[in-house]
Design goal:
single chain; alpha+beta; five-stranded antiparallel β-sheet; 30% helix; N_methyl_site; transmembrane helix; membrane; transmembrane
Length: 355
Amino acid sequence: MATKFLQTILKWRNRSSKKRNKNSGFTILELLVATLIATFVIVALLDLVVDLLQTDRREYARNETQREIQMALDFMVNDIREAAYIYDNNGLSGGGPDRLPGIINHVDIPVGYTPILAFWKPETISDADMRDLRDCRQFGSPSANNPNRTECDLLLIRRRAFSLVIYMQKVNDTTDARGGWKGVSRIARLHIPKYTLNGVRSLTRTNGYTDPQENTVKFATWPFDGSGRNLQAGSRAQGTTQVLVDFVDYPTESRTSPLYSDNLRAPDNPQCPDNVNYSQIPPSNSTFNRPSFMVCVSTNNTTGTGSDRSNANQDVLIFLRGNPTGKAGVKVAPLLAVRTQAVARGVVDKQQGAQ
């Protein structure tokens, strides 16, 4: 009886062991299905991660570009507030009622740049340079035949000299990209001071510089004197150029450049308040249609009539539109143009009662 019971248990164990061996592990089909499902899940997760990273890079590029554009505007506003005279489109490019050539014909503009905003501003001479002038005796005695002594004496009183400032835009090319300028276009500032670097002590002027308040020269007619004679003596004014901001949008509606091109349309088209009291630069009939950098310079700068008539300070509207394309290796749609207004606070040629 006991023997039969043991035999029955052994048979049952053998039977269970065979079943377990028969059902253990996965078939090839099951492994393939499991691998395929896992692949789909991993690909979906990777795509999500990549999309999140790209979104983060685009937002970073947009935020950084917007911040840089605002900083550039703030810099220009602070510059304009010190201006004594701001050129409208006629004064910049030429033409107008007086038919005088624009100032860009008398300035050495860097290749590829288009001037947009130009003005004169007084700049204070440093204390170190003023100490080098001492009492001006090194230039001889005061006399009508000693202009250097006269200039030095006036400089000791005024302690400042006028500089010409021009803001320009350039579409970046492959050479610019190799130099580190990765945006669609950039804005630079051309600075033309009266004296060369370390030239105050010897009264050495910048090449081609003509003082806008000497020898009957005026801001509006610079560099011509009252008789219409060009005082530059055939040499254009030269200065130093420094880039203010990169990643500025395309200046034309066609939206092509040596670095990037797209079929996007500029999100806005800046407009001046009117064509009577403001001069638009660049003008609407230029190749810079739907511009990314545009200014509106006030032209009607008088208040009152008759004996109450007086000169008013010029004001400038500035429009600037950034484009993050190229920053952080992404291609992004252009931003909305940022607009600001600046009023020149210069007191040159202002009458009592002027704003």
